[in-house]
């Protein structure tokens, strides 16, 4: 069987599309961005409690008092765990994705219901859309649409749309053929039959589809967080990467509140919008169990409900809480305004030294009159974004080994600004309570204790390949140990678990890493030097950005950090706590006078 | 001119319908075709329906009644042959003209009522008028009139699922009547109703028909219903019309053993009239003889039994003018009420 180069073809198609259709992708990108910004402006504008009130009023209108109270409590909880902005961003993402998905799904479903051929064509495409793992198209989506909201919206649409198409098709096909024939027999034109008979009768099913689309869209929020979409997804994703169970839980609960709210509201909408649904609901109510609790059953009539919502929205607008201006930026010292407001996007991943260096550079660049922003991504997304220019600089490229694959792929779009940190190392680590294991060679013969496995990270990581192909065979361990691939957060969670139970465990790790300060771990030494000399950490810039920001490039070229410096910075950030990174950096900078002038000397960069 | 004419209508389902028609014409058996996946639902159907007539098509399930009916308003295109409505070929009409024909001239009543569950009773009755494009007020007035006609005044604001089956079918009838169409197609319209309600509906249809004089094609598989309603009846078997005639024709002179066995369960005492079984008077009958009992030609046999029991002589049958038309001997009467077709009883 010859190797079929399916993957190569896919790559060729992607790059061909990028070359010839960038105008189209840019247009789509801009439309989706505007939609999202608009919705986010409306939802995220009012103060949290007011917006919670508006959402509760909507629930009151749709379903009555109990739901309204529960909704208000739920949203207050979201605000209470400081996830309000993220929740509204996620809600906006869901609203935009679901709206676009439905705009595409309903006509497609109608088409499929009316034509056997269309149905046969559409079905396999839907199957692929629903089952293809999101990550497979996320990276191309980033290449086409750049990092941030748009690829998240696209991925969500791809995932959520099929059920909308299917339910629409099903709903229309389910309509009693005798009714369609009756419409026909009275001389109804086909389009009118669709609008006046088939769609109204299919509406309950279609609305069930709408509900499903929205729920699926919400389930994609976390994946959206990995490609840089703001919202609960990035909270949860960030929490997972740092094994911050508390924050992950808070983010997760917020997602659940949104989910339950959206489910109830769209469920009720299914009853409200169709005459058929209203009939069923009315019949159910007359025989309902809540007889006698009039307050619980009371629902305002549409006019009343709508005016409730509108009135609250007007109050919101009146109190001027729409579109707050954000905090005033810190004053820039006279004579040091090199940036003149130019923006710099610094990419980072949820690796400690990445967060530390990116935020340190943000502090330095802001002090020099730039508008710097740190955006956190999954590494693959970050390197793709850097190649596209969505990110100007990336401060955490491990070269020549760990991130070699990205350099090979996108190297021509990067400018290497040189290394700023020398002695990284790759290693296998074990808890210090495992006695008698200090070198790789010591693992030999003790595979039973470790369950015959070494817990690894992402299978694509350079370190994994090196360990599997060189290090393990080199120490004769490849027969005794299985290298289990998982993810960085998976590996850390496994380490935390086994550490708490004081069980022997061997994990793939690297330095610098916060795990060494959190746990007592032994780095297994490498007497045969099979791991190689170790990586340095480089600053990379997008080629065009490097030209646009010559001062920044030259400052970064001159940048260096020692292990104690980096360690103390990471500690300062850790001490400041989640969400206070900037404050931690400020404290560290204050404790190291002159560090900003060393990093970004005024005049030297031009 | 006949209101509605079907000329050699064929309807064949399958992959090559035209070829199916040719093979049937060449003598291929219907079952043989079916084995190949081709269904000849209607085979060479020809008939004429007069203005104001109730024409019943009767046959067992699968005999092709519905398919035949659907060719009449173009819901199904005949594979071969044509249907003329007021002299116009229905199957050659453009889609738009066909829709106009259906919304203005031909309406339909369905077996399972086919009311739109998302519309009120009034809006259901006014559906055809809405398609015609009438303004709301006029539409509602006329729909309300149609509902009144079928005895549903006061139910306008209800929903179809709040009505009993009989009432729902009245709405279906009102919907068909509201458009003022002159041809009504009714496909087993009363079959889904309880026997008592069904009888009610039949009576109501007959009463309405006396006032409205529509042309009606009525499908049923119930022979008694066919006999009650039909001015003329077409009996279908395996896609073919095997006999067309009045109820009497079919009872008295069945075209085949199939029809004969089909009609054997009919309550013939109510369908057959004195005229259908009377014989030539063998000798002159003295109508003034007090012993002589007379009956009118249109009297059903059931009503001859009591008079016949009062005399030993044959009954004298008289026409509208009171002139002697024929006589019925007792044994003839009894034989006619028996299982055997009447023709054989004559010969006996
Ligand atoms: N659209 C179609 N495609 C294929 N075959 C069909 C189609 N419509 C009807 N037939 C076949 O044509 C034959 C006659 O069907 P039709 O519905 O006209 O019978 P019917 O006399 O109305 O029966 P019933 O009393 O059950 O309603 C049946 O064998 C049926 O399977
Ligand atoms: Mg039928």
Automatic annotation (TrEMBL), chain A:
Subcellular location: Cell membrane; Membrane
Matching InterPro entries: ABC_Gly_betaine_transp_sub-bd, MetI-like, MetI-like_sf
GO CC, one annotated term: ATP-binding cassette (ABC) transporter complex
Domain (ABC transmembrane type-1) ranges: 87-266
GO MF terms, alphabetically ordered: amine transmembrane transporter activity; carnitine transmembrane transporter activity
Membrane disposition: Multi-pass membrane protein
GO BP annotations, alphabetical order: choline transport; glycine betaine transport
TM stretches of this protein: 49-78, 90-114, 134-160, 201-227, 239-262, 303-323
Cited PROSITE patterns: ABC_TM1
CDD domains (UniProt xref): PBP2_OpuAC_like, TM_PBP2
Domain of life: Bacteria
Keyword list, A-Z: Cell membrane, Membrane, Transmembrane, Transmembrane helix, Transport
Entry's family note: Belongs to the binding-protein-dependent transport system permease family.
Database matches in PANTHER family: GLYCINE BETAINE/PROLINE BETAINE TRANSPORT SYSTEM PERMEASE PROTEIN PROW, GLYCINE BETAINE_PROLINE BETAINE TRANSPORT SYSTEM PERMEASE PROTEIN PROW
Protein name (database record): Glycine betaine/proline transport system substrate-binding protein
From TrEMBL, chain B:
InterPro entries for the chain: AAA+_ATPase, ABC_osmolyte_uptake_ATP-bind, ABC_transporter-like_ATP-bd, ABC_transporter-like_CS, CBS_dom, CBS_dom_sf, Gly-betaine_transp_ATP-bd, P-loop_NTPase
Tagged with keyword Transport: yes
Domain CBS as annotated: residue spans: 278-344
Lineage: superkingdom: Bacteria
Molecular-function annotations in GO: ATP binding; ATP hydrolysis activity
SMART domains: AAA
Record Pfam families: ABC_tran, CBS
PANTHER family assigned: GLYCINE BETAINE/PROLINE BETAINE TRANSPORT SYSTEM ATP-BINDING PROTEIN PROV, GLYCINE BETAINE_PROLINE BETAINE TRANSPORT SYSTEM ATP-BINDING PROTEIN PROV
Designated name of the protein: L-proline betaine and betonicine ABC transporter (ATP-binding protein)
């Amino acid at each position: 069987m010859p190797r079929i180069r399916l993957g190569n073809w896919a790559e060729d198609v992607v790059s061909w599309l990028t070359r010839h259709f960038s105008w189209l992708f840019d247009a789509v990108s801009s439309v989706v961005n505007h939609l999202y910004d608009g919705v986010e402006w409306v939802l995220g504008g009012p103060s949290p409690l007011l917006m919670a009130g508006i959402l509760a009023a909507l629930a009151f209108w749709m379903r009555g008092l109990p739901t309204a109270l529960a909704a208000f409590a739920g949203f207050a909880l979201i605000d209470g765990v400081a996830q309000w902005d993220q929740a509204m961003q996620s809600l906006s993402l869901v609203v935009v994705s679901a709206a676009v998905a439905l705009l595409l799904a309903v006509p497609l479903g109608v088409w499929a219901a009316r034509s056997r051929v269309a149905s046969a064509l559409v079905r396999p495409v839907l199957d692929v859309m629903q089952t293809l793992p999101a990550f497979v198209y996320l990276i191309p989506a980033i290449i086409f649409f750049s990092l941030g909201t748009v690829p998240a919206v696209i991925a969500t649409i791809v995932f959520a749309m099929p059920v909308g198409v299917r339910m629409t098709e099903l709903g229309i096909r389910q309509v009693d053929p005798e009714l369609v024939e009756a419409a026909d027999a009275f001389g109804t034109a086909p389009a009118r039959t669709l609008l006046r008979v088939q769609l109204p009768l299919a509406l309950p099913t279609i609305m069930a589809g709408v509900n499903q689309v929205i729920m699926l869209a919400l389930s994609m929020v976390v994946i959206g967080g990995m490609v840089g979409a703001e919202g609960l997804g990035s909270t949860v994703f960030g929490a997972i990467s740092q094994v911050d169970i508390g924050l992950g839980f808070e983010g997760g609960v917020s997602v659940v509140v949104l989910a339950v709210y959206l489910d109830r509201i769209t469920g009720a909408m299914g009853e409200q919008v169709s005459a058929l649904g209203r009939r069923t609901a009315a019949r159910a109510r007359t025989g309902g169990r809540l007889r006698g609790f009039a307050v619980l059953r009371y629902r305002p009539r549409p006019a009343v409900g709508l005016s409730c919502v509108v009135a609250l929205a007007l109050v919101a607008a009146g109190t001027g809480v729409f579109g707050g201006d954000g905090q005033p930026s810190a004053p820039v010292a006279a004579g040091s305004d090199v940036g003149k407001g130019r923006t710099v996007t610094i990419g980072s991943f949820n690796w400690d030294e990445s967060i530390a260096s990116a935020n340190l550079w943000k502090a330095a660049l802001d002090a020099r009159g730039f508008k710097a922003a740190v955006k956190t991504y999954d590494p693959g997304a970050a390197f793709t974004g850097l190649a596209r220019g969505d990110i100007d600089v990336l401060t955490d490229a491990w070269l020549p080994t760990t991130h070699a694959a990205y350099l090979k792929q996108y190297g021509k779009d990067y400018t290497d600004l040189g290394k700023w940190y020398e002695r990284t190392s790759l290693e296998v680590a074990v808890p210090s309570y495992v006695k008698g294991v200090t070198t790789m060679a010591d693992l030999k013969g003790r595979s039973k204790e470790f369950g015959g496995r070494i817990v690894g990270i992402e299978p694509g990581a350079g370190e994994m390949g090196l360990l599997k192909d060189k290090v393990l065979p080199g120490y004769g361990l490849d027969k005794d140990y299985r290298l289990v691939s998982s993810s960085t957060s998976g590996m850390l969670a496994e380490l935390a678990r086994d550490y708490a139970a004081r069980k022997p465990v061997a994990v793939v790790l690297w330095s610098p890493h916060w795990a060494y300060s959190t746990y007592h771990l032994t780095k297994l030494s490498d007497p045969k030097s099979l791991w190689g000399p170790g990586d340095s950490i480089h600053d990379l810039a997008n080629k065009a950005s490097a030209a646009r920001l010559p001062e920044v490039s030259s400052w970064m070229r001159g940048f260096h950090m020692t292990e104690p410096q980096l360690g103390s910075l990471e500690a300062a950030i850790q001490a400041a706590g989640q969400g206070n990174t900037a404050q931690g950096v400020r404290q560290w900078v204050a404790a190291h006078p002159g560090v900003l002038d060393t990093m970004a000397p005024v005049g030297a960069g031009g | 001119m006949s209101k509605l004419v079907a000329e050699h209508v064929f309807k064949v389902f399958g992959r090559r319908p035209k070829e199916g028609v040719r093979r049937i014409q060449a003598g291929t058996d219907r079952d043989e075709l079916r084995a190949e996946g081709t269904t000849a639902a209607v085979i060479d159907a020809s008939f004429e329906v007069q203005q104001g007539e109730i024409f019943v098509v009767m046959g067992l399930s699968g005999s092709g009644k519905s398919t035949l009916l659907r060719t009449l308003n173009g819901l199904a295109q005949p594979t071969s042959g044509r249907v003329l409505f007021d002299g116009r070929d229905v199957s050659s009409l453009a889609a738009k003209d066909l829709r106009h024909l259906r919304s203005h001239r031909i309406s339909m009543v369905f077996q399972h009522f086919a009311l739109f569950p998302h519309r009120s009773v009034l809006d259901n009755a006014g559906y055809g008028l809405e398609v015609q494009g009438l303004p709301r007020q006029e539409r509602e007035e006329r729909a309300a009139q149609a509902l009144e006609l079928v005895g549903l005044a006061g139910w306008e604001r209800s929903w179809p699922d709040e009505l009993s089956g009989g009432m729902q079918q009245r709405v279906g009838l009102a919907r068909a009547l509201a458009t003022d169409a002159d041809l009504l197609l009714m496909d087993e319209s009363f079959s889904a109703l309880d026997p008592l309600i069904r009888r009610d509906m039949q009576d109501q249809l007959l009463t309405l028909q006396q006032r409205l004089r529509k042309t009606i094609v009525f499908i049923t598989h119930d022979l008694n219903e066919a006999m009650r309603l039909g001015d003329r009846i077409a009996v279908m078997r395996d896609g073919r019309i095997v006999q067309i005639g009045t109820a009497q024709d079919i009872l008295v002179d069945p075209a085949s053993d199939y029809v004969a066995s089909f009609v054997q369960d009919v309550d013939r005492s109510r369908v057959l009239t004195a005229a259908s079984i009377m014989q030539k008077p063998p000798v002159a009958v003295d109508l003034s003889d007090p012993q002589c009992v007379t009956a009118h030609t249109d009297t059903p046999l059931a009503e001859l039994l009591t008079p016949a029991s009062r005399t030993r002589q044959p009954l004298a049958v008289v026409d509208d003018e009171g002139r002697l038309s024929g006589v019925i001997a007792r044994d003839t009467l009894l034989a006619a009420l028996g299982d055997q077709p009447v023709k054989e009883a004559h010969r006996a």
